[in-house]
């Protein structure tokens, strides 16, 4: 099993988004992720995106290499969030406040997460 963890300072992430604008949003997040985040008003929008950014960073840490963030999708589900990558689902835990967003991702031993691009 491989574990990845990441934490993001929400105000710093907000400043990044303010500087980079829509181009950064489209490079980092899928349309479904953006739609979910936009259902949160005000600060919740940025907190949700920061948590998803942290999850994508945590996944890359667990994987042991970087992958394009648009290939990784964090979706809200009835039983909590789920991380999807190349047709596989991975356990993810998200948490966020006005100050911080954090995520933990697990890649089970039996997962094919190290397989080449398909």
Might you state the CATH topology name?
Ribosomal Protein L22, Chain A
Termini separation (Å)?
22 Å
Strand content: 25-35%
CATH superfamily: 4'-phosphopantetheinyl transferase domain
Question: Biggest sheet, strands in spatial order?
Answer: 1-6-5
What does the average pLDDT come to? 92
Question: What keywords describe this structure?
Answer:
41% helix; 27% strand; alpha+beta; 118 residues; Ribosomal Protein L22, Chain A; 3 helices; 3-stranded antiparallel β-sheet
Question: Can you give a write-up of this model?
Answer:
- With 118 residues, this protein is an alpha+beta fold.
- It has one domain: Ribosomal Protein L22, Chain A.
- It contains three helices and six strands; from the N terminus they run E-H-H-H-E-E-E-E-E.
- The chain has a three-stranded antiparallel sheet with strand order 1-6-5. Strands 2-3-4 form a three-stranded antiparallel sheet.
- A hairpin with a 2-residue loop joins strand 3 (82-85) and strand 4 (88-90).
- The longest helix is centred in the middle third of the chain and has 21 residues, at 43-63.
- The model has no long low-confidence stretch (mean pLDDT 92).
Topology:
Elements: E1 2-9, H1 10-28, H2 31-38, H3 43-63, E2 72-75, E3 82-85, E4 88-90, E5 92-96, E6 100-107
Antiparallel strand pairs: 1-6, 2-3, 3-4, 5-6
Helix pairs in contact: 1-3, 2-3
Task: Describe what is shown at a glance.
This protein is α+β, with helices and mostly antiparallel strands. It has three helices and six strands; from the N terminus they run βαααβββββ.
């Amino acid at each position: 099993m491989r574990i990845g963890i990441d934490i993001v300072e929400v105000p710093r992430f907000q400043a990044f988004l303010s500087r980079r604008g829509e181009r950064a949003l489209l490079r980092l997040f899928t349309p479904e992720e953006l739609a979910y985040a936009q259902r949160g008003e005000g600060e919740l929008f940025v907190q949700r995106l920061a948590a998803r950014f942290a999850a994508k960073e945590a996944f890359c840490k667990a994987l042991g290499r970087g992958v394009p963030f648009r290939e990784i999708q964090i979706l809200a589900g009835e039983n909590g969030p789920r991380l999807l990558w190349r047709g596989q689902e991975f356990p993810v835990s998200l948490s966020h406040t006005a100050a911080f967003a954090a995520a933990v991702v697990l890649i089970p031993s039996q997962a094919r997460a190290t397989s080449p691009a398909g």
